[in-house]
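Fold these two proteins, one after the other.
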Amino acid sequence: MSTEIPSNLIKHAGQTSIPSLENITDFSLNITDCNQVVVPEEVFFTVAAAGILENLLVLVAVIRNKNLHLPMYFFICSLAISDMLGSLYKTLENIFIILCKMGYLTRRGDFEKKLDDAMDSMFILSLLGSIFSLLAIAADRYITIFYALRYHNIMTVRRALVILAIIWTFCAGSSIAIALFSHEIATVIPFTILFPLMMFFILCLYIHMFLLARSHAKKIASLPTGAVHQRTNMKGAITLTIFLGVFLCCWAPFVLHILLARFCPHNPYCACYMSIFHVNGTLIMCNAIIDPMIFAFRSPELRSTFKKMFCCARHNWNW
C-alpha cells in the first residue's frame, strides 16, 4: 500500500495547501505514538479485484435479463459503476506509487501530475456517483411506496435514463472542477459536507417513509394485490437504508482523513487517525464488495439471474 495520498485534495505545490502525507507521516512519528497500519498489497489487490468483478457481474446480469430492464435496476447499475470506479481508483493509485518507488515514475513530473489529476477526478466521480445514485434509488423507492398506482407513469425507463444522464454529466463536470481547484478551502468544504447531509437524509427517510407507510398500507391493502405490493415496496425501502448505511461506514473514514490532512495535519490526534489511512482506503473497496451482496440477497430476480448465469457457465465448461 501507499504511504501517501497522491491527491490534489491534500497537496498542491506552490498554493495554499498542506504538505504531502508522506511528510505528515514522518512528522507524526515525533508527535504521536500511533504506528502506521499497513495493509499487505496482496490483500489490497485481492479486495479491489473482487469488487470490480462483483459489480461487473451485476451489470452483466441486468443487461442479460430483460425482466430487470426497469428504472430501479438501472439506478442500481449506476451505483455498481460508481463502486467499480472506486476500486479502480484505489488500484491505479497503488500501482502509481509502486512505480514511483521502483523509479519508473517521478513524483513531481508533468506526466505524473496529469496522471494524479486524472486519478483524483476518478475518486471524486466515484464518490459523487455513489451519492447521487443512492439519491436516485431513494427517489424511486419513495415514488414506489407513496405513489404505487401511478409509479409506472411517473418513473418510466426513458425518464430514468434521462435522470442518469444528467447525474453522470453533473458528476463528471464536478469531479474535473474539484480536482483542478482542490487547493481552495471553498472547494474542499462543500465536497465533504455531503456526508452530514447524507446522515440527515437517512434520518428523514426513516421518519417520513416508515411512519407514513402505515396510512398508505391501509389504503393499498384494500386493493386485490395491495398487500403484496406494500411488502415489496417496504422491502425496497429497507434495502435502500442498508445501502446508505454501508456507504457511510465505508466512505466517511476516508473523507474524514482528507479533512484532517487538510486542516490539522500536525495535530497529534489527527496524525494518529491518519496512521490508519491504508485501512480507510481498503474500506472504500469493501463497499464495492458489499453492495453486490446486498443486491443478490435482497432481490430474488437478480439472485435468480446470477444462478442461471453460473449454471450456464458451468454447463459450457463441462461441455
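Now the second one:
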Amino acid sequence: MPSETLWEIAKAEVEKRGINGSEGDGAEIAEKSVFFIGSKNGGKTTIILRCLDRDEPPKPTLALEYTYGRRAKGHNRPKDIAHFWELGGGTSLLDLISIPITSDTLRMFSLVLVLDLSKPNDLWPTMENLLQATKSHVDKVIMKLGKTNAKAVSEMRQKIWNNMQKDHPDRELIDPFPVPLVIIGSKYDVFQDFESEKRKVICKTLRFVAHYYGASLMFTSKSEALLLKIRGVINQLAFGIDKSKSICVDQNKPLFITAGLDSFGQIGSPPVPENDIGKLHAHSPMELWKKVYEKLFPPKSINTLKDMKDPARDPQYAESEVDEMRIQKDQELEQYKRSSSKSWKQIELDS
C-alpha cells in the first residue's frame, strides 16, 4: 500500500478536527468562558491572577474587564483557551452582564460568584441581585438558542444535572442554575473571627443556596493553601481538569463542597427557634432562608450607584493633557449652568 503524501495527512487531520469540533456531536470545544461576578472589592481579580500565575498587584475593576489564559493539552496539539470576564462595581453594573453571555459562548460558559464574608449584611442582596440578573439573561439566551439548536440546549441541561447522582434524595427538590456555578466566600481570615452563631448562620445559608442551585461552594482567603484549592476549581471550569471530590462542611474550617455532594438533610433547617419559624411568612424555602438570614444580618439600604467612583477622576488613569481639558470643560459647564440659571430668573421676573 503506497504511503500517504503530506497533503493527504494534512487533509485527514483537518477533517478529523472538523468532526471533533462539530456542534452536533456534543464534543467539547477547546475554548471556554468563566465569568466572575460578586461583591465589590471582594477579591475577584486576585483569584483570576492567581489562576493565571500572574504575579502582579490587582487593580480595581471599574466596569467589565477581560483577559484570557492558555493551557497545553498534549504534545504538538493546540492549546486550550479560557476567556475570563470580570464584572466590577458589585451590583451597580447589572446591564453589562449581557456582554459575555451570548448564544456563541453559552455552551461552554461557567459562572463564579465571589461573596465577601467580612460583610455579611451585604451578602444576601449582592448574591440575590447578581444571580437573578444573570439567570434572567441566561434564560433569554437559552430560549433564543433553542430555536436554532435544540440539541445544544438539551445537552447543556443534561450536563448540569450530571452533577447530581440519579439516586440523590434531593434531586426533585433543587433547581440547578442554567450554567455551572461556583460560589466562593472570600476573606475567610476575617470571617473566622466572627462569633460562632454568626458563622453558623452564614455557613448554613450559603450551603442551602449552593445546593439548591446545584453549585459548588468554597471559602478562601490570602492563604496559599486555600488559593491553590480555588485555583484547581477554576482550572476545572476553564480547562476541564478533573473535578475535586474532597469535602469539608465543618463551620469551624473553610467550607469546600463540590456540586452534588451536599444534601438538605445534612444542612438542616434554618437556624431559628422552631416557635419562630411559624411567624416567618414565606412562599418558598429560599424565601424562608432569606428571612432568617436577614433577621440576623439586615441589609444596608445603600445606593450602589453612588458608591461607584468616577473613572475619569481615578489617579491610576491620570493623563495630564486630558485632565487639564476635563477641568476646563467642567468650568465651562458650571459657567453655563450659572448663566442659564440667571436667564431663567430674569424671564420669570419679566413675566
